[in-house]
Amino acid sequence: MSSAILRQASSAARAVSRSCAFSTSAVARKDFVQELYIKELKAYKPPAPVKDAHVGIVKSYSLPPVPQVPTLPADLASELSAYDAAEPTFAAAPQDETLAEAVGPTGAETFLAFLEADEPKAEAHH
């Protein structure tokens, strides 16, 4: 039985030593990964820029044409008098009779009569 106890003690000692070794190797591995990452970052060389990479992508800019100065008509006075003499024309809005029946009479007089009407008195509850 003493050999069984020795085996259990040695296996327990190995388990404890493995857990300690694992935790210390994790710290060492973290440093190793960090150092490897920093080394790769320092060694990275970005690709050289391509010359004339913008050709075909960027459009060339050109100024818009200069606007023309508006010219006044030769006979401005006669055109203004013709405009003043002309009667304004209004487009006739289509009347929907069903809408007018549903809404009822409208206008300023109807609105004023509505405002002047007495409100119904609330009935007292007994």
Could you please describe the fold and organization of this structure?
The chain contains four helices and no strands. It has a domain of 45 residues. Helices cover 54% and strands 0% of the residues. By secondary structure, it is mainly α.
List keywords for this structure.
proton-transporting ATP synthase activity, rotational mechanism; 126 residues; mainly alpha; 54% helix; ATP_synth_F0_suH; 4 helices; ATP synthase subunit H, mitochondrial
Number of helices: 4
Gyration radius from CA atoms, angstroms: 48 Å
Question: What's the story with the biggest beta sheet?
Answer: none
Helical content band: 40-55%
Distance between the termini: 103 Å
User: Percent of residues in beta strands?
Assistant: under 5%
Determine the structural class based on helices, strands and strand pairing.
Answer: mainly alpha
Low-confidence stretches: none
Count of extended strands = 0
Mean pLDDT: 77
Secondary-structure element string: HHHH
**Outline, from the CA principal axes?**
flat
Give me a quick take on this structure.
This protein is mainly α. The protein is 54% helix and 0% strand.
